[in-house]
Amino acid sequence: MNVHTYEKVWLIGAMVLIVGFIVTITYGSVGLGIAMVDDSEETIEPSELDEDERFADPRVEQVGENEYEAYVVAQTFIFQPDPIEVPSGSEVTFYVTSPDVIHSFSIVGTNVNTMVIPGEVATMTVEFDEAGEYGVVCNEYCGSGHHTMEGELHVVP
Ligand code: CUA
After folding, report:
1. Residue 149 CA, closest ligand 1 atom number
2. CA-CA distance, 105 to 151, in Å (whole number)?
3. ipTM > 0.90?
4. Tens of pLDDT, residues 132-148
5. Of 153, 124, 157, 155, nearest in space to 41 by CA
6. Which residue puts its alpha carbon closest to atom 1 of ligand 1?
7. How far apart are CA 96 and CA 103, in angstroms?
8. CATH number at residue 60
9. What is the mean pLDDT of residues 57-81?
10. Which pLDDT band, with edges at 50, 70 and 90, does 17 fall under?
11. Which helix (H) or strand (E) holds 34?
């Protein structure tokens, strides 16, 4: 009986430690994940983007004098809107999500490169000082058309 009790105590102690380790590891990797994909905490129902007021109609919206918000949908194998058009000298906050599989939203020649995960909204703010045209590409393998998944970003004068 006594042995049994000790065993139980040790067992419970061991389990508490294991759970503690798992929590530490999970918590740690979640922190890393967020750092890598920017802020992707917001959740969204991937199958209902059509009914979401932000993503039903992917677009760029002016929200301040030089401030814009871009609602972008990355899906097999296109980006919407395409091209994304913003004025030079603007600060643009991108909200990007996917209705199907994992993609990325990467603006060639810049450090904008975020993973786009179905169910999450990747968010990043970028300043565009000069006019120019950029390619938008997907850096996450997403299927047979992955290599053709391209869009354009026009920063207009
Ligand atoms: Cu989308 Cu690769």
Report:
1. 1
2. 10
3. yes
4. 999 999 999 999 999 99
5. 124
6. 103
7. 10
8. 2.60.40.420
9. 97
10. confident
11. helix 2-36
